[in-house]
Write a structure and sequence with these properties.
It is a single chain. It contains seven helices and 14 strands. The chain has about 290 residues and is of the alpha/beta class. The chain has one domain: 4-Layer Sandwich (Purple Acid Phosphatase, chain A, domain 2), CATH 3.60.21.10. The chain has a six-stranded mixed β-sheet with strand order 1-14-2-3-4-5. A six-stranded mixed β-sheet has the order 6-7-8-9-13-12. Strand 12 and strand 13 form a beta hairpin. Helix 4 packs parallel to helix 6.
Amino acid sequence: MSQSQHQRRRPFLKQPLFWLLILVALAVSLWRTGLQNAANLQARSIEWRVVGWPVDETRVAIFSDWHLGTGPTMPRSVEAIRRHTVQGFAPHLIFMLGDFIDESLGHSDVEPDTIYQVFRRFQAPLGTYVVLGNHEHWYGKKRILPVLKMAGMTLLNNESRMLPLGSGTIALAGVVDHMTDTPDTKRALAGVLPTIPTLMLSHDPAVFRDLPDRGRILMVAGHTHGGQVVLPGLGILWMPTPIPKAWAHGWVQKGRNAMYVTSGVGVSLLPVRFGVLPEVVWLTVRPA
């Protein structure tokens, strides 16, 4: 390239419009990547072994933070997720950890019948159990509770249910939302002997702090979206609950108790994800 050609290019490279176009192109590419990440749902398989589990294997499908109506979590996609789970994992139990719907992006007009039609086929041989999230409270519990009941889901509201399994018994417990209600782990575990293996549902992992250190308990929680936006060198930019950032996603151990926090299915506030993908959790419980 001649010297005169170099000189003709330099003024162009110094133009603000050129760099503005570069920034716009990068922003569009980044946004597109975030949208693709939000739609890239993973099936994450985890295992929990506990003393006293009465059968060789129990499979539990765990869903959290659908935020129905925002981002990629539209009614038409939920049925595809259900079919994939039923065919690929065949769960004995299904847990729903709250935030079925979303209001943060102006989708408070999701009708209760839509929720019923979308989730009524999430059935498992040993039952489908649910706790509510903060968005259900903002949406209106009186609107959503009847449709969840019609859909065959059992609500665990600071309470537990004893479930015969094989030649023994397990406990399923659940607590109310930490942000909009008053979770009570002691009340939820009232009558559950420490020797009984227990699965506890909580929307918010902050409740794990209050869990009695008795062992043989696995809490499963959501709410954090795994951070949703996790950037290199900066980590999680914001969390919706006052917990250590190490609790945002994955396994947490505290004393004799264990917790798994799922990154959830959907998105909130922004329809994108960076650094953490959405997931459905396939939990297998076996005796230790």
